[in-house]
Amino acid sequence: MSSSTQTEAWVDRATRVARGIRRRALQLTIEKNGCYLSQALSSADILAVLYTKVLNIGPSRAPLKPPPFAGVPRPGLHHLGADYNGPRAPQYDRLLLSAAHYAVAVYAALVETGRLAPEALADFNADGSSVEMIGAEHSPGMELTTGSFGQALSQAGGVALARRLKQESGKVWVFMSDGECEEGQTWEAVQALAHHKLDNVGVYIDVNGQQVDGLTSEVMNIEPLADRFTAFGATVVTVDGHDIEALERAARTRHAGTPLVILCYTNTACGVELLEERKPNLHYVRFKSEAEINRYRDYLREM
Amino acid sequence: MEVLTQVHEKNLVAWAKDRPEVVVFSGDLTGSTEIGLFKKHYPDRFFSLGMAEQNMMSFAGGMARDGYTPFVHTFAVFMYRRALDQIEMSIAYPNLRVRMFGFLPGILTPGGVSHQAINDVGVLRTLPNMTILETGDATDVESVLDVAQAVDGPVYVRMVRKDIPRLFPAAEPMQLGRSRILSRGTDIALVSAGICTEEALRATALLGAKGVSISHIHVTTHKPFDDPALAQQLACVKRGVITMENHTTVGGLGTEVAEMMAEHGIGIPLTRLGLRDTYAHGASREYLMKEYGLDAISLVHATERVLDQRFNINEEDLAGVRLSQFSGEMQLEAL
């Protein structure tokens, strides 16, 4: 295969995965009477690129159908969340999900990349299931417990420091939401990553400009993000968060001696344009009437 | 009474020599938390995290996930107050091997309310998975590292520093969940922890001479709080139990003992000496111990109330049994 054909092949695959993430998230929103849909729509392309191209990870070590919740962490209990991202090995990358509210998007990405059975989504937000609405480290694809925002980047720093001491070549990738840039700890973390020159950390941030109360620009402005991260010592790349090739290219940015931050500007209704009518209140989408559900059901059929 | 200085500083260096998994985090308080010598000996295992405690606690959790044991050092208030959610979500919930060394417990600093950890035990005791230890002398400080490191989960340690007495034989190390029984008696059980034990010892000798029969127990494990030997001591005294803690009387040692007494059906009066649901202020240790009723004379008065007797013991009598001669620098010590 020529290199251009190879590029086409993975871009096609990533595009299919992204479309699948959106379709599955919309389907769950209808079936489960509510879901973090807009987050899945804004991040689908980012997660698709991570799982199909950027992440250097091995095959899943966890069962296709996740077991029920096995209890909170304790000695002797091994949690399976990270196992969906393959074995831990010095050469492999790690993916740390900071915005746990994006769980549905991660689950869908795992399904689309063959790491999770499609039936597993039937357990989404079901009592006793590990496929929780806002997951924790027992949930597929999650290594950390991060529903309280702004903590994963710091934890990634600890993981990255440990990996550097152990001379491991694998990288630590963090997926964050832009709302987390309102948390002071995020800036403490970037400051520390830069101070300790942790260039084995890469961060994708879904800048969808939306939070619970509405638009980030109105609730608590976080811009100019690129200038802020640059000032704190990171190497920053800004991309269209729905441009598959740009998202991948950004991961290859040279950032020796500094963490890499990829700002992905996205649209919370991308792929389900019907949702534009509900902006800006899209934090948690629940359809209100039978008529509305039917409109989205029709839309889903066309996706 | 032997008084030692910089016990943790020296001990940590020797103890960590053959433990490459142990790394030390400093929150810009390297000298104040006695880790300067560690930094000098093991610069590759010392990490400066600056004045950013939320990040520091989560960072420690991340590093613990990858096989290292972070020993986080800062003033206690900057951990359990400033970064409680980080301790809970990044360390306690995942049950990670992080050791938190909280300095300046209670009123042990003239730094005032912002620096005085008066409710750390109470707050952290509510965290599942958390083990809580407290040091009261040089032997406790020397042996607490072994106790902490043997725990497969997070540990918080209330640390004493600088000039500290050796109350207990160096050959009798702290043990997890095991109190030190300093005397056995039948009238009163006196349960003390941290610096209060030394203070209590000033009074117990005189009270004993007046015929009071005291069981004196020094507690070093606040959580889990289930020492059967302690429960047995509480059950076998007739008149009452007195607790003495460098902490508020809400949630700390007094509460722990109350719960233990209730669970064992021990129906005798409990008197809790400590900060009575109040913040403190900046002043010397001796001044604050007197002001808040954490001193030997307060213990004498509490004993009198419990036994409904008067012993005619005054401050001058107690002054004769000062155990440690602290250097005059105590009050002036740098933060």
Q: What structural keywords apply?
A:
heterodimer, A: 303 residues, alpha/beta, Rossmann fold, five-stranded parallel beta sheet, two-stranded antiparallel sheet, 9 helices, 38% helix, 11% strand, globular, B: 335 residues, seven-stranded mixed beta sheet, five-stranded mixed beta sheet, 13 helices, 14 strands, 20% strand, disordered C terminus
Give the topology.
The complex is a heterodimer of chains A (303) and B (335).
Chain A: H1 3-31, H2 37-54, E1 94-97, H3 103-112, H4 152-165, E2 172-177, H5 184-195, E3 201-207, E4 210-211, E5 214-215, H6 216-219, H7 225-231, E6 235-240, H8 244-251, E7 260-265, H9 290-302
Helix pairs in contact in A: 1-2, 1-3, 1-9, 2-3, 2-8
Chain B: E1 3-4, H1 7-15, E2 22-26, H2 36-41, E3 46-48, H3 53-65, E4 69-75, H4 76-80, H5 84-92, E5 99-103, H6 120-124, E6 131-134, H7 138-149, E7 155-159, E8 164-165, E9 180-183, E10 188-193, H8 195-209, E11 214-219, E12 221-223, H9 228-235, E13 240-248, H10 253-263, E14 270-275, H11 285-291, H12 296-307, H13 315-319
Parallel strand pairs in B: 2-3, 2-4, 4-5, 5-7, 6-7, 10-11, 10-13, 13-14
Antiparallel strand pairs in B: 1-8, 6-12, 9-11
Helix pairs in contact in B: 1-7, 3-5, 8-12
Q: What would a concise description of this structure say?
A:
The complex is a heterodimer of chains A (303) and B (335). Chain A is an alpha/beta fold.
Written overview of the protein:
The complex is a heterodimer of chains A (303) and B (335). Chain A has 303 residues and is α/β, with parallel strands linked by helices. Chain A has a single domain, classed as Thiamin diphosphate (ThDP)-binding fold, Pyr/PP domains (Rossmann fold). Helices cover 38% and strands 11% of the residues of chain A. Chain A has helices at 3-31, 37-54, 103-112, 152-165, 184-195, 216-219, 225-231, 244-251, 290-302, and strands at 94-97, 172-177, 201-207, 210-211, 214-215, 235-240, 260-265. In chain A, the strands form two sheets. In chain A, strands 1-2-3-7-6 form a five-stranded parallel sheet, sandwiched between helices. A two-stranded antiparallel ribbon of chain A has the order 4-5. In chain A, 53% of the residues are buried. The model of chain A has no long low-confidence stretch (mean pLDDT 96). Chain B is α/β, with parallel strands linked by helices and 335 residues long. Chain B folds into two domains: 3-165, Rossmann fold (3-Layer(aba) Sandwich); 180-328, Rossmann fold. Chain B is built from 13 helices and 14 strands. In chain B, β2 (22-26), α2 and β3 (46-48) form a beta-alpha-beta unit. In chain B, α1 (7-15) packs parallel to α7. The radius of gyration of chain B is 19 Å and the shape is globular. The model of chain B is unreliable at 327-333 (pLDDT under 50). The chains are: A alpha/beta (303), B alpha/beta (335). Chain A binds chain B through residues 72-75, 136-137, 143-148, 150-152, 154-163, 165-166, 184-185, 188-189, 191-192, 195-196, and chain B through 44, 47-50, 52, 54-68, 70, 85-86, 89-90, 93-95, 128-129, 152-153.
